[in-house]
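Fold this sequence, please.
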Amino acid sequence: MNFYTSDQHFGHANIIRFCHRPFADVAEMDEALIANWNARVTGGDTVYILGDLMFRAAEAPDHYLARLNGRKHLILGNHDLAWVKKVDLPKYFVSVERLTVINTGKCKATLCHYPMMCHEGEYLLYGHIHNHRNDAFWPLLRTMEKALNAGVEVNNYQPVTFDELIENNRLFRDADAT
């Protein structure tokens, strides 16, 4: 099975406050994210990580990567550029790219850390904006039903299937309308 996720920010204490995450501290957040990931993803599953897997972590990247199930594909985000230099990438990732186009099994989709107005494929899967609705581009982005936010805040802090991604994004957009 294929799963999609983004913006775990393992090790990043300030992300809890910044995105109103429901965790007391970074240790609780990291352990919950790992547990949620492994409760869904088996060793035979594929996970597309749309960037910002960790940031400012006191632990080495291997501490997290060795604990995450699945065949992992990393789409680089702005906070990945430092830690990827400290790890044997082929040991943990099938691929590491800035952008890729895949067949989800239902359609063709572009995967990129950043939201884009133009892309190849029927869908765009992105991260980067977390659960923020106050940025200048949100009014336009929320009208793009086939642009799906893979961020953990929008997807119950776990990797999700393509169908779950569609439903979670519908709920996130609809909550903005109320």
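Residues 2-177 form a domain with the Purple Acid Phosphatase; chain A, domain 2 fold (CATH 3.60.21.10). The chain has a mean pLDDT of 95.
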